[in-house]
Amino acid sequence: MLKFPHNFTWGCATASYQIEGAWLEGGKGLSIWDAFSHTPGKILHGHTGDVACDHYHHYKEDIARMAEMGLSAYRFSMSWPRIQPTGYGKRNPEGIRFYSDLIDELMKHNITPWVTLYHWDLPLALQMEFDGWLNPKVADFFCDYADICFSHFGDRVKHWITINEPWVTAILGYGQGVFAPGRISNSEPYQAAHQMLRSHGKAVDLYRQKYHFQNGKIGMTNNCDWREPKTNSEEDRAAAQRALEFFLGWFADPIYFGDYPESMRQRVKERLPQFTPQEREQIKGSNDFFGLNHYTTMYASDAEGKKVLSEVYGNGGIAEDQNVELSVDPKWKKTEMGWAIVPWGINRLLHWIDERYNHPDIVLTENGCAFDDQLADGAVHDPQRIDFLKGYLSECLIAIQNGVRLKGYFLWSFMDNFEWASGYTKRFGIHYVDYESGKRIPKSSAEWYRRVIQNNGF
Ligand code: PNW
C-alpha cells in the first residue's frame, strides 16, 4: 500500500468553457472561445462549448457526485464574461450569483473550492477593443475583475489561481493560432506572456494588500512537460535545460527570481519584453504555491546546424528560438492525445522545480489522460486510465519521499468535456458524459479514485 502524507489534497479539476454551456444565458457576455469555436474550421467537427456538459444547469448533481467520491477539493474556473460581460465596467449579478451558489453547494458537502480566475475565456470585447493580452491595459481590467471575485467569494474561497497555463495562451493562442484568439506570430507570444505575468503580479498584489484578512493563498498555474536529454552529451543536456527554461522558466523565473531566464534573453533578444523595476518587484515572490499541470515527456537534443520547425500542438514552443529538437521513444505508449505516457517524467520535473525554485510548496493542479472510452451495457471500463494514474501517482509519492513539497493532486478531469480544438472527441473524464442525453456515468477510474481518496493511497 502506497500512503500519501496526512493532509494531502485530493481533487478533480475542470474549466468554465469546457463544461458550463449556457453560453448565452444568465446575462453572460461572449468570450474569445465562443467566437473561435463558432469560426468554421477552427474546431474538429465544428464543435462548440455552447452546451458542453451543461454544468450550469446541473452543478448540483455534479457536486453530489463529487461528494460521493469523497473529493476533498474541486478546482474550477470562473468565466470572466459571465461576471463582467465586456471584461470591464458593469458586472453581471446573475453570473456572480451562479458562482456564489456553486461555492455554497461545495461548502455544504465539505469540498474545498480552488478557483481559477482565468482559464482562457477572455471577454470578447477585450479582444476586439484592446487586442486582448497584447494590451498592457488588460492587466488593469484583469485586476478589477479579480477584485470583484475576491470581494464576492473570498469569504469562502481560500485558494486562488490567477491564470491557467499562460504558455498555452501564448504559444497556441498567439503563436500557432490553434487556440483562441487564433493569432500566428513569433513575437506576440512573448508580448502576451508578458502582459499575463503583469496581470498576475497586479492581482496578487491587490489580494495581499486589500484582502489580507481573508487569509487565503494565491498562485499561478503553469504547464510543463518533462524534457529528458536524448544522450548524455553536454550539448543535449544543455538543450533539455534550455527547453525547460523556455517552457516553465519563462513564467516561473519572473515569479521566483524577478526576470526571464538568461537563455531566453540571449536567444529571443528584442522580441522579449523588459519589466520595469516596479513590475519586477511586484511579480517577484507572487506565488504562495507552485501550481503545476503536467501531461507528458519528450527527449530533447541540441539542434545545432539543423533546421527545427515548430510543430502544431503540444511541442515545446517556438522551436526556432530554442534550437532544440524534440522526439519520443517509439516504445513509449501514448494516450489518445498522442502524448507519451512516461510516469518517471513527473518525478524528474518535480525535482527540477524543487531545486531551481528553492523548495516551494507544489500543487499538481492537473494531471490525467484521454482514452477512447466506450460505453457498453451502461458502464465504462477504463483500465488504461487507472494504469496511467497509478504510474503517475507512484512517481509523485517517490518525489514526496525524497523531500519534494508536493501538497495536492487534481485529476484532469472530473468529467469528459470540450477539449478545445479537439472538441468532444477527446475524453479526459473519470465520468463519462453522454452528450446526447447529458447523462454522466462514472467510469471504473472514478470508483478507483474514490478508494484512493478514502485510503489516502493505493
Ligand atoms: C490543459 N499542449 O491544456 C488545460 O489546462 C485543460 O483545459 C485541458 O483540457 C488539458 O490540459 C488537456 O489538454 C493543454 O499542447 C492543452 O501542450 C494543450 C497543451 C497542454 C495543455
Radius of gyration: 21 Å
- Helix tally equals 16
Helix content: 40-55%
Structural class: alpha/beta
How many structural domains in the coordinates? 1
In the sheet with the most strands, the strands line up as: 1-2-3-4-5-7-10-11
Oligomer: single chain
CATH secondary-structure class: Alpha Beta
Q: How many β strands by DSSP?
A: 13
Q: At the third CATH level, what is the topology name?
A: TIM Barrel
CATH architecture: Alpha-Beta Barrel
Low-confidence spans: pLDDT under 50, at least 5 residues? none
Which hetero compounds are present in the coordinates? 4-nitrophenyl beta-D-glucopyranoside
> Can you give the mean pLDDT?
97
What's the main sheet like? Answer: 8 strands, parallel, barrel
Helix and strand succession? EHHHEHHEHHEHHEEHHHEEHEHEHEEEH
Going by CATH, the homologous superfamily would be: Glycosidases
Distance between the termini: 5 Å
Can you give a write-up of this model?
Helix 3 (55-69) runs parallel beside helix 5 (93-108) and helix 7 (137-153) packs parallel to helix 9. This protein is 41% helix and 15% strand. With 458 residues, it is α/β, with parallel strands linked by helices. The protein has one domain: Glycosidases (TIM Barrel, Alpha-Beta Barrel). It contains 16 helices and 13 strands. The N and C termini lie close together (5 Å). Strand 12 and strand 13 (439-442) form a beta hairpin. It has an eight-stranded parallel β-barrel, surrounded by five helices. The model has no long low-confidence stretch (mean pLDDT 97). Bound molecules: 4-nitrophenyl beta-D-glucopyranoside. 4-nitrophenyl beta-D-glucopyranoside binds at residues 15, 18, 164-165, 168, 223, 293, 313-314, 366, 412, 419, 428.
